[in-house]
Amino acid sequence: xxxxxxxxxxxxxxxxxDFLFAEEDFISTPPGYYNLTRYKRYPHITEYQSSQDTxxxxxxxxxxxxxxxxxxxxxxFAPVIFPGFNLHEYNNTTITFDTGGHGSGWNLLVVCVEGNxxxxxxxxxxxxxxxxxxxxxFESKVGIEFYDENEPIFxxxxxxxxxxxGFFPGILVLGxxxxxxxxxxxxxxxxxxxxxxxxxSPPVLEIPSGHPLIKTIQIxxxxxxxxxxxxxxxxxxxxxxxxxxxxxxxxxxxxxxSENDKIIKVLAEVQREQIVKxxxxxxxxxxxxxxxxxxxxSNVNFKNMFFKNLGFTTNEPYNDTKLIFSPxxxxxxxxxxxGTNQRHRxxxxxxxxxxxxxxxxxxxxxxxxxxxxxxxxxNVIISNSLISSKSGSNMIAQLGTGSIxxxxxxxxxxxxxxTLLDVDQNNNMDYGNQGNGxxxxxxxxxxxxxxxxxxxxxxNYYFISNNSNQDNSSLLNSKPIEIIIIDPMFNPxxxxxxxxxxxxxxxxxxxxxxxxxxxxxRDLKTSHAINVNLNxxxxxxxxxxxxxxxxxxxNVERLDIIGSNINSNGAFKNISTSTTNIFDSYxxxxxxxIQPFNNQIYGSLTTPYYYGDPNTLDQFIIKSIxxxxxxxxxxxxxxxxxxxxxxxxxxxxxxxxxxxFTSSVINTTVVQVNSNNSCILPLNINKEEDSLNxxxxxxxxxxxxxxxxxxxxxxxxxxxxxxxxxxILSDNYLYIxxxxxxxxxxxxxxxxxxxxxxxxxxxxxSFGGNFFQNGCNKVDSxxxxxxxxxxSTGLPKVGNQTKFDEIVxxxxxxxxxITSTNPNEKVIIATKINSKIHYYxxxxxxxxxxxxxxPTPLSIYIENQPVFLLEPIKSIxxxxxxxxxxxxxxxxxxxxxxxxxxRGDIYLTSIATYSSIEVETPTETPTLSPTETPTETPTETPTETPTGTPTETPTGTPTETPTGTPTETPTGTPTGTPTIEVETPTETPTGTPTETPTETPTETPTGTPTLSPTETPTLSPTETPTLSPTETPTxTPTETPTLSPTETPTxSPPISF
Length: 1057
Hints:
The protein is mainly beta and 1057 residues long. Strand 17 and strand 18 (243-247) form a beta hairpin.
């Protein structure tokens, strides 16, 4: 014990030769407060921009603290080596504090750790505050008890100043290492046996008394969905210590275990009165404040520890302490406005630390706080832990590029009263108070086997648009975001009013128009709802298993469902999209009166496999359909439509299954499944220029013969298929499939071509006899580019061709390009057309030069209307893509605006425009151009290629399309020959491809796109493109069309329409 005068004398002496803080800013404060040290929180992170002061200010207690005597023999704590209250351990020295030995009876005020400080023993380590300086290391095998600095531990006790930012009591880590590890597990999994018995795993350890005359009281704390904050019980065990018989005591009531509880966690909390090795980190008194604040690239390891009521940031709006600096000196504070609710004083707050592990710990905050765990830009692995709180969120993940891996944790939330709270404080970075499990404005969170109970949202991703600390949108635009939620368990009803909507997952961009990216959720299994608000982004689900009760609410620009099974009726009833793409996915529908997705764009691919009985999935599945993507067909062409199935059960055979094909422009056609497990419908397209929709219904022949399911209406014949049409009963149909849209064109002629070149030149290049004009730039009146574009010359050459002269020609088409100056801004190209021509076909050629390994969303618009939205383009090497689409000039425009958006690594290199030969709307028998006089039906099946299929979805598109293309020609009239008479063409096409396609391309090609105007972009071309739109193909192409069967049936005529 020393007096105050001696303490002041020692501080002065130490200050004279202490140079550790020479580079730190010393901040003087008004009387009654600690002087402060300014710590640079963001020394190397330039992307954080803020008008606020981002520096950290903590009490300046280490600068003049009493230091230990650096001697190799002095490795244990004793008063002789620390003659004072504030202790500062020298660098490169080691001190051990034994709570039951030399340190017994000492209650330290502050310990500053610059070397190695280790705590061991059988008692709690009692202290006010610990500051771990850069390079310091603090280790403890026992629990820590924080006491308030106003408690008189010593007499006489010096009057202590105030800490304006509330770091004391607690732990402040500024770049060192902290490791607090209990030797034994404190958390156990449990399942209910009856109201008063549970079985736990692993077996509970017997708590030793530590004294032969003291019997340890066997007490545990049990957390359930009904009691998320837990209750105490005494217990007796069987000989294996697995079965616990529960009972109450005179001090506490042991609640019964409900049979509805699915989450039961047992905490072996050691009471302070017990003479055993404690594993708690807590406050000595209920009114004592305390928190753990970690920053500066620290290393963190907590295991088998109980964090009990440390946090004191409430769920009210933040109110931070503010420093008023002298206008003449930024190191002098003239006044301090004390905050009433300082942010980030949680049980555990971690920022800018890339090595954080939390395992087997329990967090309890039974006061109304903001969150026990708050994380910022850190790599955190948290597992096998319990987070129980009466708070706004169980965990808050702030901005940053770090990652959080959460596995096998239980997040329990007690109901909070939010009626008086302002829950829309995001403009002040004040968030996470709505009742969430994990609230995140940082995208990199993965969850494996976590359990949630009592929350309004188990996962709430909220990407704030007006972020004051960082331009969050730039982070989100830089790459797609993958959300991984595996095997979650969610019980939202325990603490939430039934009137409130609850969601397992909520993703919200807050209306931020600058956030334009691709969100991916894979391998999710849930029966709970999901809500999204992503006005300008895409959301893709891979291998989604949606049980009864699953649905998606909200709005999203693009929704993709791939390789999934949705066993929930009306799952997409409340979702608004601009384009929905459903591929290789099964969706339950209790009724066969299925309406197609409305308001879809040209590039949408929506081909769900609807089923009415889940048992059907166990009997047989759909192996493939053809066409499997939107296609463009020249009128008069012939091709096959097919469905191939795979039998899974002996309870059904192919003889039991028939396919009923329906469309708004053909009569009902019944086809029996053949020996190749396929239904094949030959079609001959003889109709006016338009789009048509085709539906197939698979039925069981053993059941009563049903009426056909009404087909989806085409754009020109919406009245031909009304809702009053007979429908198949829900127990009669097996599958209903809507084929991708088929667009029919008359022959087109080449109209114009432009190169994206900044040269004001009239130079032309010829390709296939068609001319491309040089000089589409920012000033030319015939082809003008918007000012927010930038040119790139010398783009990669087109390779992989067999003819040298064609390579040279193609290189000229792809040698220069334009992209946006700023990511995701529309680049607009205005080009002249003939106002008297009503139908055009536009073909755009792009070069993708990847800037990373992530996909780039590409969107294309014409006259401000989307044609393709957020198509994910991904490649490792430079690749070439083309997109072809139709434009109907309804308003007789003489100029059209074509626009595209990308994040800056896709370049538009050239544009080709084709016009219909007819000036007026084409009739049933079109007038042909003078350059062609066909006298017979085309002799070759046209290439039908996808128009809107992603070249590769961001992270996990199936690498192989189902190999279900029929490979045999029917040798006789197919069973179930069309029940209607059809018009037989004058000559059967003879130019059917002879090579069987094996898979649909799934990657962006490195070859050259096909330039034929009457077909959509060929995604894996091997032949030199042609630009002769008026010629009828006469030779078999070198590449087999990927979307048509290999042979034409020879015994039955195709269906004409």
